[in-house]
Amino acid sequence: MLSALDRRHTVAPPGYSRWLIPPAALSVHLCIGQAYATSVYKNSLIAHFDASQTAIGVIFSIAIVMLGLSAAVGGTWVEHNGPRKAMFVSACFWATGFLVGALGIATEQLWLVYLGYGVLGGIGLGIGYISPVSTLIKWFPDRPGLATGLAIMGFGGGALVASPLSRQLLSFYDSSYDPTNAKSVASGGALVALFLTLGIGYFVVMMFGVFNVRVPAEGWKPAGWDPSTVAAKPLVTTANVSAGNAIKTRSFWLLWVVLFCNVTAGIGILEQASPMIQDFFRENGTSTVAVAAASGFVGLLSLFNMAGRFAWSSTSDLIGRKPIYMVYLGVGMVLYALLAVAGHTATALFVLLAGLLLSFYGGGFATVPAYLRDLFGTFEVGAIHGRLLTAWSAAGVAGPLIINGFLDAQGKPGSLTAEAYRPALFTMVGVLAIGFVANLLIKPVPEKYHQPAANAEPTPEESVAR
Q1: H helix intervals, 35-81
Q2: In whole angstroms, how far apart are CA 137 and each of 15, 39, 130, 436?
């Protein structure tokens, strides 16, 4: 049975439509995108464990750290074993993470939640995130930004499903839990049932992607596409760079800084999204934004995140990767400053600013695989992408720590106001400025790092053919 997961059994037959690949990738990314909905039940976890915001926020940070580390360590393995086996391994770790997390909640052992959702679930996140990327780029060499945007938008849209689903499940498992009451928190039993339900449900959905993904046959290319047209674009190479050589280049580390800064700025909002909108509009100790509306805001941010991944990455195919990152980082600085000084004046303005920032955040994720393909070629782009995602790991710690650190110093959850967020938001402006400069410094990779044509290692497809 397990041999069906091998790469040699996933090579697409003649006439196979490449448009069947994005739905397979989406089924995995929509499931692991649940990570963006953790703020919905964050306060319930705080109450259950009698812990601080930072202590509960660490769960999310560990998951993101493990995402980057597992993607970096497992990137080459994913390249050589193919997307089907990688997706299956991801599903196993992701589901197990929920089950172990449920055990930690049931026994009131927070370290088990760290181990389950954080470590094991984070490994599932990392392997699942990169599993379809290299395959999509090979299927869509003519439109890499569009292809990766189609799949990776699923990760950004995961909270669109998980946020309302989590609220409804918590209400179902705990009749005393009122999602419309700001002070209502779900019981430990409801949280356990929620984690068990999500773990099993997500595993089943991810199996759709496992058994429907395919890799292109050796030598395949889209009808009517001329590879020579690729070289006409700035920063785009027709050569190939190995993963080992890529990390020796200046461009790789500059792009690492760019991704770190873009993610740090966005992830702080995502992790705190539901309480944040309530705190920004608090009068006399009471928020004018209901909990249900705040949860809806999380879902709306997911829409912006998801749309940005598709729209901005597709735009990058037209204007180039460096210019689009100048938009993400440069305009992002202006939006963060506006959010800090004027975000509290109107709910619509707050939602618009936060939504645009999250669209840039999502767009940065979806565009980076195509940026890597432009700089380093397709040879081991999946493995290079995995190594670059360590920037996400670092940002997963930095973003929430900046936000939660400031907030813990300002007061307890439920009593904060917009003023408490301003130091953190202005800090994010500085972070984005660093990323903006790093992006300007990115240049084509020197020829000394290119793979010699005669001595180049075979691609995974070529290895199978031999």
Answers
A1: 42-49, 53-81
A2: 18, 32, 11, 26
Task: Determine the pLDDT at residue 137.
Answer: 86
Distances (CA, A) of 311 to 37, 269, 303, 304, 369: 22, 21, 12, 10, 15
Which run of H or E residues covers position 130? helix 121-130
Cα–Cα distance, 190 to 176 (Å, whole number): 10
CA distance 244 to 451: 11
**DSSP assignment letter at 141:** T
Taking the C-alpha atoms of residue 157 and residue 125, their distance in angstroms, rounded to an integer, is 15
Within a 10 A sphere around the Cβ of 385, how many other Cβ atoms?
A: 28
Residues 125-147: pLDDT tens digits? 999 999 988 889 889 988 888 88
Give ∠ CA 157-396-296 in degrees, rounded to 5: 35
* Long-range contacts (CB closer than 8 Å, 24 or more residues apart) made by 138-143: 138/215, 138/216, 138/378, 139/18, 139/21, 139/216, 140/18, 140/222, 141/221, 141/222, 141/225, 141/227, 141/230, 141/378, 142/222, 142/225, 143/314, 143/317
Query: What is the DSSP code string of 145-208?
Result: HHHHHHHHHHHHTHHHHHHHHHHHHHHHH-TT--TT-TT----HHHHHHHHHHHHHHHHHHHHH
In tens, the pLDDT along 36-79 reads 788 788 889 999 999 988 899 889 889 988 988 899 899 889 88
Q: Is 241 helix (H, G, I), strand (E, B) or coil?
A: coil
Nearest to 415 by CA among 51, 43, 39, 38: 43
Burial grade of 309 (CB within 10 A; 0-12, 13-18, 19 or more): buried
3-state DSSP assignment of residue 233: coil
With CA atoms as reference, report the closest residue to 260 among 434, 421, 70: 434
- Token pair 């039940």 is found at 41
Residue scoring higher pLDDT (230 or 41): 41
| Residue pointed to by tokens 């052992």 | 109
Q: Using one digit for the tens of pLDDT, what is the confidence trace for 245-263?
A: 999 999 999 999 999 999 9
Residue 83: CB partners within 8 Å, gap ≥ 6?
10, 131, 132, 134, 135, 213, 215
Give the DSSP letter of residue 331: I
